[in-house]
Structures are given as C-alpha cells and as structure tokens.
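[stage:ingest] chain + small molecule (zinc ion)
[stage:ingest] validated
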Amino acid sequence: MTNERQGTLIGIDVGGTKIEGVLTDGSGAVLATHRVPARPGDTQVVGDVVAVCRRLSDAPLPVGIGIPGQVDSERGVVRDIVNLGIVRLDLAEEVGAALGTPVRVENDVNAAALGAAAIVGEPVPAGQDFVFLNFGTGLAAGIVRDGRVAHGASGAIGEIGHIPVDPNGLPCPCGQHGCLETVASGGAVARLWPQGEPPMPDLLAKAAAGDAEAGRVLGMVVHAIGDTVQIVIQAYDPAVIAIGGGMAKTGRPLIDAIAAELDRRAAASHFLRTLDMPGRLRLLPADEPIGAIGAALAAKVLGQ
Ligand SMILES: [Zn+2]
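[stage:predict] done
[stage:export] tokens:
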C-alpha cells in the first residue's frame, strides 16, 4: 500500500457523485486507485479527500486535487460548488494540515487536461499547446503548455462553452443566448435528444438509419462541435486536441462525425485545408481516471 518511491504522487478527482484517488509515478502511470461516494459539505469533502489519500499511502506524498467550480490554484481556495454545498473552502490548507503534506488544487477540467496529455502521450513541442476538450454536462477546454496548465489572466482561459455563436440560439444559464455549450455538450444533447439512453450513440444510430428528426438534431450538434474545434484551432493553434468528457464515451463514431464535418468545411476553404483540423483530433480512452491522474501530475509543481 505504501509506495515511497521518488516522485510518487497522489491525485484526487472530486466530482459531484464520487471522489476518485490514484497513486501515480511522476509520469502519471497508475500504481493504485481508491474511490468513495462524494458527500456534500465542507467537512465531508475535506474528510473524504483525506481518507482517500491515507488509503492510498501512509507516507506524506504531494497531493493534487481536481475539483469543479471556481478554483484559485495559487491559494488553493475553491468557491461555488453547488453540488457539494461549498460556498468557499480553503481546500489546500485544510487537506494539507490534516496530512502534513503540500497540496495543489486545480479546476477539474484543467487537471483532466494534464491527465489527457499524459494518456495521449504525444510529445508537444515547446511553446505549443495541447488542448483537452471536455464535452460533459457543459463544455470547457483545458490548455497544457510546456507541461503545465495555462490559467490566463483571470483563470477563464478555457471557458469556450460560453462563446456565443448564434444570437437567435437557445438561452444559456450564463445569461447569453446561443453559447456553444447550449448545443455542443453532453448536457445539451441529452436535452435535444431525450429519447436516447445514452443520447449521443442513439442519435448517431438513428440518423444513420435515416430518421429525419435525428438527422436534423445531429446536424445541429455536429455543426456546433465543428465550430468548437475550429475556434480552438484558430485561437490556440494546438498541436493536439483530445476529445473527452461523457460524450466522448460514444467513441469512434463521434470522432468520425466530427472529422466529416471538419472535412466538409475544409472542402470549401483553402485556408481551412491548410490547418489540417481532423488530423489534430485524438479520442481519449473511456475508462482511464484522467482527472485523478492529471490532479497527481498537477502536484508535481509542489516539488519544484
Ligand atoms: Zn453561456
């Protein structure tokens, strides 16, 4: 159970329903895992994270935590996590005090981006970006630059889900209309195609079988995903874009549909052809604990 090998790290992915922990080496290879159900409340979240860490190792290893909501990574403070009943919590300080170890906290999508970069395992040249696109309940990107999470000036660097692309589009909880996230996210597809469980594979299958309504909805969704990928490529010009989140569990048929949309656009534009958009896409394996692995890798900065 204990592993005190040099460079060993603990990563914790705190979600709305579960807390998943991994023990990794410095490259993100998983040595042990442990998960518990998530319980709301500051005391419960801190206590559960500490318990998972202790279960993974009785040595005081660096700990990285990925968690949704607004995260101030420099101070280790998290805010406004509705599902967990957290308004403001000094997560790094409280977990660190209990374990006697340094703790790094990252936004969950940023942490997952580090994990995705490790899993994809393609070297990205210095100064170029690796982008993780999370098609989950919402839509957000995590950007890894030179092996580190990029945060931007205010921490909002990856909030691409709230780029408004259609002034006549659906209202978004953020107060705008026609945000990418209102169509290009797992949550949006579940609303637009409620008859499928899970919705995206059902939508693809019915559209392929000639169902006109499925074809219309799929066209809308794939167009918005195409917009998302194109915006990411034109804004960041990343070497690699990894597609993840719940919707990515659809697997190859989803990537094929996205690539077909990007090819369709490129056929009409010499400029887009030069960008080789489909060639940058990678599908992430569905069963890897990417968020927890990335959280562990985020803790590497603690030892530097
Ligand atoms: Zn929005």
